[in-house]
Amino acid sequence: xxxxxxxxxxxxxxxxxxxxxxxxxxxxxxxxxxxxxxxxxxxxxxxxxxxxxxxxxxxxxxxxxxxxxxxxxxxxxxxxxxxxxxxxxxxxxxxxxxxxxxxxxxxxxxxxxxxxxxxxxxxxxxxxxxxxxxxxxxxxxxxxxxxxxxxxxxxxxxxxxxxxxxxxxxxxxxxxxxxxxxxxxxxxxxxxxxxxxxxxxxxxxxxxxxxxxxxxxxxxxxxxxxxxxxxxxxxxxxxxxxxxxxxxxxxxxxxxxxxxxxxxxxxxxx
Length: 270
Prior knowledge:
Distance between the termini: 63 Å
Low-confidence stretches: none
Structural class: alpha+beta
């Protein structure tokens, strides 16, 4: 008889407390790493609002069944289901973004996977900026604050090697031979007010560096909309996107390395 293991994921500001169970112990361990420290190991589903069960080649949740044709895709698909299930409470927004702060001013890096959000955040933390969140950033629109959501940071080896060339020397943790290494950094749990939030639409590996403020409201709304994780109805989405885009400044930053970082810092912290 296979032994079932389970983990409960309880994210600040989320409407769902998610219970995940599976006989694949490595899968449960991987999910625990991705959502540490917002996890607990409970055998009972009591108190959870969403149950996700992973058995062999199936993921069962909310009366839905997702079939997996390749075992290597299991973790990726499960993470996507959990992320899409993190329906936030009214007034909370989850962005696909990383965030750091300095002198009570938050800088939120937007960008698609692989754009360089974590790499740039880690480099700035090496310069003394504080860690707020990685990959997912929670915003409370009711209090006009970023809710710190620090987790272990997973980074590609190539990105870490680039950081080491710039004297970034934080130790790595590696779990398994195929996974990217993890970095654990001390977080700051102080909420940051909205009036001091700067959204940065970033893109790494560019031949020409670009630092330009986006002032067109439609363009700001488009960039915000492309980076929302939260599931909202259409009316709430438009209202939320407009509110966020209207309250913050947005800078487009394209970079190839860190040679122009001082100019970027002067721009955002002027």
